[in-house]
From TrEMBL:
This is Flagellar protein. InterPro entries: Flagellar_biosynth_FliO, FliO/MopB. Its main location: membrane. It holds the Pfam family FliO. Belongs to the FliO/MopB family. Keywords: Bacterial flagellum, Cell membrane, Membrane, Transmembrane, Transmembrane helix. The chain crosses the membrane at residues 15-33. Residues 84-93 have a biased composition (Basic and acidic residues). GO terms for cellular component: bacterial-type flagellum basal body; plasma membrane. Residues 107-118 have a biased composition (Basic residues). Residues 84-118 are annotated as: Disordered. GO terms for biological process: bacterial-type flagellum organization.
Length: 118
């Protein structure tokens, strides 16, 4: 009778060992893929979104810094269009952090003195 009880335990042990081997193989393959896959740059690149302002349901005006230039881009309907470019400002007070200051920068880019159209 002892041999009949041992058979299920042996079968369960083999199944558990097979499961451990499969999990170990999955972990090894994942680690190899992370190590040898091409790395994408994370942050710190040459492109930085300074500000963004919606102007419609699907349209936005985006201020992007590239090197020492700010690009004013119109983004919408699967298109990106350059609207204007101007020298980047290093003074934190000039950086558009609120919608009102973004409006001032946009107005300056369009050639107006104030932040309001009119």
């Amino acid at each position: 009778m002892g041999a009949g009880v041992a058979d299920p335990l042996v079968g369960a042990g083999k199944t558990a060992l097979a499961l451990v081997v499969v999990i170990a193989l999955i972990l090894i393959v994942c680690a190899a893929l992370k190590r040898f896959s091409p790395q994408r740059p994370r942050g710190g690149g040459a492109l930085k979104v300074v500000a963004s302002q919606p102007v419609g349901q699907r349209e936005r005006v985006v201020l992007v810094e590239v090197d020492d230039t700010w690009l004013v881009l119109g983004v919408g309907a699967g298109r990106v269009e350059k609207l204007h470019s101007l020298p980047a400002r290093r003074d934190p007070q000039d950086a558009p952090s609120t919608p009102g200051s973004f409006a001032r920068v946009l107005a300056h880019a369009r050639g107006h003195k104030g932040g309001q159209d009119g």
